[in-house]
């Protein structure tokens, strides 16, 4: 089988992967950057990014990811729109192997910048309702026409839940944030902005969900959410924002010795725990590319003798 060779294979074109590819290009090291969905990663969901330097008025997530895409194109970064579905280490050849459904690859270095995946509520019917497009986990997946004048329930009380409410409020008829506690874990500025839109965004506290049901009647179908206190809530669409977990399904497939781990990097949200921010992910990418450049230089210098 013919494998396409690259010095560095990067999984994920979010801020971490893009920064790595850009910095590697500056060092003259070739890389392939893989993306299964869209360039810019999770940031597409942000209503307003206000803490990334260089944008004094903040920037909307969709505009931000467009800029990242342009940045990659301008620098002629080799972006491959394929999902990496398998990775392994060949200790004999000292190469990483990876493949998508379409192609096979090999590389000296492997960068896992695959970010996070949404946490599920793990309630009966959740999967079915997701397949039927009643349940979503990211606002960027919601068709703006489809949600026009609809009632949306957002489950969660962290930054993402409040950010989603502020983003969607201009399209929908009503948003209700459903919080299982009486406190919120979001930034105070997001809470205040949501409170200032109390005509359209409601908050209900201390509600534990036990089930979701689709209710179909002649005119329209909707979802009925039932809580532990037996009360019910009706809405058209549910957006779940109860946190994210690391996307480690691929990396778990690598069982390699410690020595070889030097050529494997995990960067950005996939390894940053609580500290999930664009600037931290980008900085990880730059640092990782600089380490690889230094490593390549040492190796090429030692080859001279
Ligand atoms: C609502 C919301 C608002 C936010 N607001 C801010 C903010 O204001 N400021 C801030 O700094 N941060 C914000 N963030 C956080 C920020 O978006 C993340 O920290 C950042 O995107 C992490 O970058 P990353 O590259 O590590 O991962 P991600 O952005 O998650 O990118 C990972 C990429 O890898 C791809 N991928 C995964 N697996 C594979 C595979 N097997 N093959 C190919 N591709 C794959 C994914 O499709 C994705 O594009 C916000 C996040 C959310 C959800």
What does this entry show, briefly?
The chain has 305 residues and is an alpha/beta fold. The protein is built from six helices and 17 strands. It folds into two domains: 173 residues, FAD/NAD(P)-binding domain; 123 residues, FAD/NAD(P)-binding domain.
Characteristic terms for this protein:
single chain, 305 residues, alpha/beta, FAD/NAD(P)-binding domain, seven-stranded mixed sheet, elongated, binds flavin-adenine dinucleotide
Topology of helices and strands:
Elements: E1 4-11, H1 15-26, E2 31-34, H2 61-74, E3 79-80, E4 86-90, E5 95-99, E6 104-112, E7 116-118, H3 126-131, E8 135-136, E9 151-155, H4 159-168, E10 174-178, H5 188-195, E11 201-204, E12 209-216, E13 221-227, E14 232-235, E15 237-240, E16 244-246, E17 264-266, H6 278-303
Parallel strand pairs: 1-2, 1-6, 2-3, 6-17, 8-15, 9-10, 9-15, 10-11
Antiparallel strand pairs: 4-5, 5-6, 7-16, 12-13, 13-14
Flavin-adenine dinucleotide binds at residues 11-17, 34-37, 41-43, 45-46, 49-52, 83-84, 113-116, 160, 163, 247, 250, 268-269, 276-279, 281.
Structure in words:
- By secondary structure, the protein is α/β, with parallel strands linked by helices.
- It folds into 2 domains: 4-117 and 245-303, FAD/NAD(P)-binding domain (3-Layer(bba) Sandwich), CATH 3.50.50.60; 120-242, FAD/NAD(P)-binding domain.
- 25% of the residues lie in helices and 27% in strands.
- It has helices spanning 15-26, 61-74, 126-131, 159-168, 188-195, 278-303, and strands at 4-11, 31-34, 79-80, 86-90, 95-99, 104-112, 116-118, 135-136, 151-155, 174-178, 201-204, 209-216, 221-227, 232-235, 237-240, 244-246, 264-266.
- The longest helix is centred in the last third of the chain and has 26 residues, at 278-303.
- It is elongated and about 70 Å long.
- The model has no long low-confidence stretch (mean pLDDT 94).
- Flavin-adenine dinucleotide (FAD) is lined by residues 11-17, 34-37, 41-43, 45-46, 49-52, 83-84, 113-116, 160, 163, 247, 250, 268-269, 276-279, 281.
């Amino acid at each position: 089988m013919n494998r396409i060779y690259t010095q560095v294979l990067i999984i994920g074109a979010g801020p971490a992967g893009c920064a790595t590819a850009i910095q590697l290009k500056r060092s003259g090291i070739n890389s392939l950057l893989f993306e299964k969905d869209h360039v810019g990663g999770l940031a597409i969901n942000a209503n307003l990014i206000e803490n990334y330097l260089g944008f004094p008025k903040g920037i909307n997530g969709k505009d931000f990811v467009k800029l990242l895409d342009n940045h990659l194109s301008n620098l002629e970064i080799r972006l491959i729109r394929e999902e990496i579905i398998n990775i392994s280490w060949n200790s004999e050849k000292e190469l990483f192997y990876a493949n998508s459904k379409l192609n096979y690859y090999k590389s000296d270095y492997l960068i896992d910048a695959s970010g996070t995946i949404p946490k599920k509520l793990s309630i009966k019917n959740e999967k079915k309702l997701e397949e039927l497009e009643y349940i979503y986990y990211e606002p960027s997946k919601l068709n703006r026409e489809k949600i026009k004048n609809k009632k949306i329930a957002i489950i969660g009380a962290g930054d993402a839940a409040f950010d989603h409410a502020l983003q969607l409020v201009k399209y929908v008829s009503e948003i209700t944030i459903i919080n299982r506690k009486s406190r919120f874990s979001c930034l105070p500025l997001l809470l205040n902005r949501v409170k200032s839109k109390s005509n359209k965004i409601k908050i209900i506290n201390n509600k534990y969900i036990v089930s979701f049901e689709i209710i179909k009647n002649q005119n329209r179908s909707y979802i009925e959410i039932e809580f532990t206190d037996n009360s019910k809530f009706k809405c058209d669409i549910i957006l779940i924002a109860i946190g994210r977990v690391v996307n480690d399904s691929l990396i778990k497939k690598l069982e390699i010795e410690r020595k070889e781990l030097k050529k494997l990097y995990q960067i950005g949200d996939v390894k940053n725990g609580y500290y999930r921010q664009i600037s931290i992910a980008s900085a990880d990418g730059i640092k990782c590319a600089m380490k690889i450049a230094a490593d390549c230089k040492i190796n090429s210098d030692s080859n001279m003798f």
